[in-house]
Amino acid sequence: MTVIEAQRLGKRYRNIWALRDCGLSVPAGHVVALVGPNGAGKTTLLRLLAGLAAPSAGRLRVLGGCQPGSVAAREGVSYLDQQMPLYRNLRVRDLLRVAEAMNPRWHGELAEARLAALGIPVRRKAGRLSGGQQAQLALTLAIARRPRLLLLDEPLASLDPLARQDAMAALMTSVAEDGLSVVLSSHVVPELERVASYLIVLSGGRVQVAATVESLLDTHRALIGPARDAARLAEQVPVVTVSRAGRQAQALARTAAAPSGWVGRPVTMEELVLGYLREPTARALPGPAVTR
Amino acid sequence: MTAAAWSPGIAVRMARVTWYRHRGALAGIAGLFALPAAVVLAEGLAMRSALGGLSRCLMTDAQGSVCAGWPAWDGFLNRSWYVDDLAQAMNVLPLLAAMFAGVPWLTREFETGNFRYTWVQGIGRREWLLGTFGPLAATGAVAAAVGGLVFGWWYQIAQWPSSAFPYGGWSWVPFGLVPEVAVGWTVFALALALPVALLVRRTVLAMAACAAGYSAVFTLVNWRLRDWLVSLAPAIARGHYPNQIAPSWNDLFLRGWLAGPGGNQASSRVVGKLNGLTGTQADRWIAQHHYVYLVAYQPHDRLQLFQFSVAAVLLAAAAAMTLAACWLLRRHPAE
């Protein structure tokens, strides 16, 4: 089953296309890293998936064919954005009651156990919790709905490293225990590298990369060779980006083996992401390779 | 947004959500009517007690002139001088309910960004809107009904000795001091807040817009719609020329005219001629020339029918506002 299926998806705000001609087909069970520069369309894509916005063009389906925002989609999709919207004037206990009343699949015991384990007092107003506690509370409310797809738009951005690590660990526990799919938008690529199994890179409102991390790492190599041969490298392998330093050149290429005269080594996800972000016209999508 | 089937289960769940999230607003609406109602109830009881001590003199003269100087009469007057001001102020209560409870519950969703949490839950946007509005409107309706009952009772007592329960309740102040009209205005005001809040999305601005909208409709209803309604299907009776009064003091006089022998309205020449005569001469002239003076009026027993009619119009307008809000919610998504 695919949790996200998009065909020629577009979203326009007045005369500006925030997303255009996006095609995606993400299988279930992945932790998807959604990366891209500011203004790339990450938040727009997540809001479309959550049903908070409607596409201007194309088709978008979640959870194997549900229209975002439909009853079935709302029951199966949780969304949490960077502002961590909470009713801050309510006590945590009342927030749980509200969430229970609004969600038929609510898992109250899970929520209470999780909050107890995190030491979050249920009698305190949400607005009086620390930033880390608020993030954990928001995450708990999202997870206890027992979604099949969890959309996270940089919800941990404002947390200190320790709180981020705790929240990420809690998230991964839920992924492992409940088998849910997660789309996680973040600028912190090394953090995503530890948890992501699928990568989507957006740039300028278009999908630049969409594939499993494993396949991307298998099919890309960092190549090091003489700078004078850099111009001819593109004739031998699909090159994503090349940088030169003195007589040496380093390239990111879509190949499993290094061509003669070049030394190849495996790439990290961060190198892969940065390589594609430096070259917005390059593509790594299902189908024929599109590189410079 | 897609339409989910509305069911009693969703209504109950949303009533719980509304209780947890907006119990302050619910209590505020109830208190807004309950506090003035409690005050006028106490005042009404005190005035009724004072009038009880004046029954002998009021039997002689209902206007109270015979009672002048009696301590109980002074006590009554001391309590009733502000009645009209207070009665008029009570027409503002529905607007206050809309401004301070009807608008903020919605605008704050946008100001805080909480709609990005609320709108992705298991309950859809339309169900959320209606499920929250329902308990607020129901609370407002019950509070306004009880308030209208108490205000109307109090106003009658306050006005009774001077027979000034104005025009038998046809003037705009007592017309609205009954449960059905109070409910109509309150539900309408709360419903008006929905599309206003969805369009403006800022609390203070939306409160101002709501006040402007309510004032416009209030003026339109009380000085246009009500006049038009009471002009429909009037009763006709013979009157005494040129008195502009209905057969009974608590009927609503609409107009009077002279009808000639053929049933046609008298010409301006005839009216001019009559204006130059004394009352007795005019009566004699009218009898001799087989003219008759007719008055159109609304009998007092139709008052409640008109009050229900105005309430029905307001509730229909409230339904239209609610539908408009649902349409806006669907048409203008979150971004």
Radius of gyration of chain B: 26 Å
SSE-based structural type of chain A: alpha/beta
- SS elements, strand count of chain B: 3
- The total domain count of chain B is 2
Indicate the CATH architecture of the largest domain in chain A. 3-Layer(aba) Sandwich
Strands across the major sheet of chain B, in which order?
1-3-2
Give the strand content of chain B. 5-15%
Description:
The complex is a heterodimer of chains A (292) and B (335). Chain A has helices spanning 42-50, 71-76, 92-102, 108-118, 131-143, 161-178, 189-195, 213-219, 230-236, 269-278, and strands at 2-13, 16-27, 31-35, 57-62, 77-81, 149-153, 181-185, 198-203, 206-212, 221-226, 239-245, 248-253, 263-266. By secondary structure, chain A is of the alpha/beta class. Chain A has two domains: 2-204, Rossmann fold (3-Layer(aba) Sandwich); 215-278. In chain A, a hairpin with a 2-residue loop joins strand 8 (198-203) and strand 9. In chain A, helix 4 (108-118) packs antiparallel against helix 5 (131-143) and helix 5 (131-143) packs parallel to helix 6. The relative contact order of chain A is 0.14. Mean pLDDT of chain A is 89; it is low at 288-292. By secondary structure, chain B is mainly alpha-helical. Chain B has a three-stranded antiparallel sheet, with no helix packed on it. In chain B, helix 1 packs parallel to helix 8, helix 5 (93-102) runs antiparallel to helix 11 and helix 10 packs antiparallel against helix 11 (203-230). The longest helix of chain B is centred in the first third of the chain and has 45 residues, at 8-52. Chain B starts with 7 loop residues before the first helix and ends with a helix. The A-B interface holds A 13, 47, 50-54, 67, 69-71, 74-75, 77-79, 81, 83, 85-88, 90, 94, 97-99, 101-106, 141, 145 and B 1-2, 4, 13-14, 16-17, 20-21, 112-124, 128, 333-335.
Topology:
The complex is a heterodimer of chains A (292) and B (335).
Chain A: E1 2-13, E2 16-27, E3 31-35, H1 42-50, E4 57-62, H2 71-76, E5 77-81, H3 92-102, H4 108-118, H5 131-143, E6 149-153, H6 161-178, E7 181-185, H7 189-195, E8 198-203, E9 206-212, H8 213-219, E10 221-226, H9 230-236, E11 239-245, E12 248-253, E13 263-266, H10 269-278
Parallel strand pairs in A: 3-7, 3-8, 5-6, 6-7
Antiparallel strand pairs in A: 1-2, 1-4, 8-9, 10-12, 10-13, 11-12
Helix pairs in contact in A: 4-5, 5-6
Chain B: H1 8-52, H2 55-60, H3 71-80, H4 83-89, H5 93-102, H6 104-112, H7 115-118, H8 125-159, H9 172-176, H10 179-200, H11 203-230, E1 235-238, E2 252-259, H12 268-275, H13 279-288, E3 292-298, H14 303-331
Antiparallel strand pairs in B: 1-3, 2-3
